[in-house]
Amino acid sequence: MKKEIKTVRFPLNHTVFKWIAAGVGGFFCVIILAYCYIAWLLPIPDVLTKPVDLPTTKIFDRKGTLLYEILQPEQGKKTNIPLKRIPADFINATLAAEDINFYSHPGVDIGAIARSLLFNVMEQRVVSGASTITQQLIRNLTGNLNKRDFHEKMVEAAYAIRISNMYDKDTILEMYLNRIYYGNMAYGAESAALDYFGRHIYDLDLAQCAFIAGLPQSPSSYNPFVYFDNAKKRQKYVLGQMVKYGLITKNKAESAEKENLSMRPNKYQIKAPHFVQMVIGQLEEKYGENRVINGGLSVITTLDYDLQLKAEQIIKRHVDRLASNNVTNGAMVALDPSNGQILVWVGSYDYFDEKIDGAVDMVTALRQPGSSIKPLTYLAAFEKGYTPATVIYDIPTQFNTESGAYSPKNYDLDYHGPVRVRIALASSFNIPAVKTLEYVGVGSFISFLSKLGINTLEAEPSFYGLALTLGGGEVRLIDMAGAYDVIANYGIKRDSAAIMEVTDSQGNVIEKYHKENGKYVLGNHGREHSYQIIDIMKDPSARIAGFGEGSVLELSHQAAVKTGTTRNFRDNLTIGFTPRLLTAVWVGNADASPMENVTGVDGAAPVWADFMESALEMKPKIDFFRPVNLIQKEICAISGKLPTELCKEKIYEWFVKGDEPKLFDDYYKLFGVDNVSGKIFDDSCKKDYYRLNLKETALIAYPAELQRWALSKGLQLPQINSCNTPREYSATTPVTTQTPGAPYLSKQNDSPVVYTEAYADVQAKRFILDSPANGDEYMIESTLPLKDQKIPFRSTPPLGTTKVTYRIDGTETETVEKPPFSYLWLPEKGMHNIDAFAILNDGRKIKSSGSTFIVK
């Protein structure tokens, strides 16, 4: 039997309903009374109407020299202007960026608060504060710029409601636009307009209005004199908001975004201005703008102002020297490699010179590094298996990239044949550097640079291509200095430090520098590889081929250094270091206009050398530390392999233990030369010509890939004669080989095959597989997409080739039907055999030599 459930119903006049009604009514009465009190009776603190005398924040160098004293709001640049004189674009930009419902809410925006609470709960942290313009005004006036806890937000909201009932909306907006902080000691819109553009607020156009209106959210992060790119991104956001709310059209927004903005800094008493601005930005990020402005902080920085003055004077002297070459600007940053402390920071020739955009900090500006990035390319290659003795063929080469064919040229427009990495890097040859990047992989290299602290290469690897190793990507000078600092510290990366100590107005230490241990960012032998790079960059002999003897790069101290010049002479750099000092120098024009024939050696290098000599003048001379896991091994200079008795030029090179060469030189070979006739004979012919006076002579038998280059240089190419018909030693008529390193003897009709074209393809009847070479190893980076790590297949087919087909492990992989017949292969882990065959225009099919390579 079901149990019947009885429903108890109370009449409307029941006591329960009376209590509920009384409670709800009382609650609303309290809310109404509280709101009335807040809106009309809440006392206004004096701080909202009367300025408070607070101690100023002072910034010093490491020895106590005052660099800058931060003005307080009442001392800052202020110019009041009535709301009616402020242009509509500026007002609309401010409302769109900060508080689009300003004219319709009572000081607080309930809808925005609800959305803010939702976002904060979802993120489990404060990500949105929903502050109105009135609340921001209160926060600025009360000094609670950095407090976002619940209590402070409630107090702020209460005062916002009170102020909204004291003044009309236009008056509040006028107060806001005249008192809000826009950065660089500019308080109010009029002061900001004069400070940044040298124009009254009512003369600004849409682009300028949106630019300034976006700054108050974070004047330090959006400081256009330090972080111009950030300020432009904020401008784009403001313009987007104006379009969203129907205040301007999309076309107007796009036009304003593209407009070139010329900044105009106001002159004021400040030493090392770019550095000080950078430090202020760091302080405001840590402690909030109000505490920096009003907190009376004492800040001891790492800057050495004596060195700073030397640097400024040297830059000015050399830029003046180069004025006739259209050089107007220079910059420098110097670090202590032992701890990463910034000792010098010169952002431009003259911070206050508007004609050269002096306020733009070229230490942090994005510019192309030229060849100064090459040491990082070779370091990445060392991590993958290269050594300083690895030989790269500096000969005409056309690379097949995803963006098309690419044929780099050396700076001297010459080719240097077989060059070891030591010579290639120190002399800054371009073709070997491009081949090295091809070996490393563009995607892998970008990932490697990120480990070193260079994170501005955000496009796809195909955007940069192989030109990246020649400086084809934009980086910051400070980031390049940091990457070199990793080499100087043998693989340890530290963040650069600018602040030694911060104390408050009562003398309490709130921040103190402690030497950072840093993070090791290279591979198992990164310490040794770093030393190898250092040893190459400090080797004056290795630089001779590219820079000649006695170059400006040679100091009285041991110093590792590299120059860089971009295309069209738009930028040139020199970055180098001793164990005590690392200095990076840029010379050029802030607007990227080209200099006239000014290279890194002519422009940045003399600045670097003069400063380094001056800074190290009284310092003891010390050499770089050498890791114990390195050994010095004698090699044959031309091949980089172990020398035989025939090798005529031997040198010593540093190797990581276990990576030293195992094979013997195969360039120098013995040939029988008739002392009477000068004819050359292969060993197999000696027995038939015993009656002749043969002399064993060591001659260079260039590999087939180098014979075109050798011929163009007029070098002797041993022309082997058949046993029946001895021929003269030839300097102009090369012959092919059966395999690289084999005797130069042709089996075709018992007579040599000769090609006499000056720089034609002398392998016209052979097919050479250039890459991968036998024994090459490639490593797949797990952090990169596989498509960015393709392995290049390159070959030199015979003349008249119409197509080339590559085969991996016996399976046809790709057929290429146009020069340079190269192909990018998606790698697969394992050991692979590769060969290829070419189809000639007469229908013949010729097979290449093969090789074995490994993908790990």
Characterise the protein shown here.
The chain has 856 residues and is α+β, with helices and mostly antiparallel strands. The chain contains 23 helices and 34 strands. The strands form eleven sheets. Strands 27, 29, 30, 32, 33 and 34 form a six-stranded mixed sheet that branches. Strand 18 and strand 19 form a beta hairpin. The longest helix has 27 residues, at 15-41. The protein starts with 14 loop residues before the first helix and ends with a strand. 44% of the residues are buried.
List keywords for this structure.
856 residues; alpha+beta; 6-stranded mixed beta sheet; 5-stranded mixed beta sheet; 34 strands; elongated
Please give the structural blueprint.
Layout: H1 15-41, E1 57-60, E2 66-70, E3 77-78, H2 88-98, H3 110-123, H4 133-142, H5 150-166, H6 169-179, E4 186-187, H7 189-197, H8 206-213, H9 228-244, H10 250-258, H11 273-287, H12 289-294, E5 298-301, H13 305-321, E6 329-336, E7 341-346, E8 366-367, H14 374-384, E9 391-394, E10 399-401, E11 404-406, E12 417-420, H15 421-426, H16 430-440, H17 442-452, H18 461-464, E13 475-476, H19 477-488, E14 492-493, E15 499-503, E16 509-512, E17 519-520, H20 526-537, H21 540-547, E18 560-565, E19 571-577, E20 582-588, H22 604-615, E21 630-636, E22 650-656, E23 668-674, E24 680-681, E25 694-700, H23 707-712, E26 768-771, E27 777-778, E28 791-796, E29 801-808, E30 811-816, E31 823-825, E32 830-840, E33 845-847, E34 851-855
Parallel strand pairs: 1-5, 3-4, 27-34
Antiparallel strand pairs: 1-2, 5-15, 6-7, 6-20, 8-13, 9-12, 10-11, 14-17, 15-16, 18-19, 19-20, 21-22, 23-24, 23-25, 26-28, 28-31, 29-30, 29-32, 32-33, 32-34
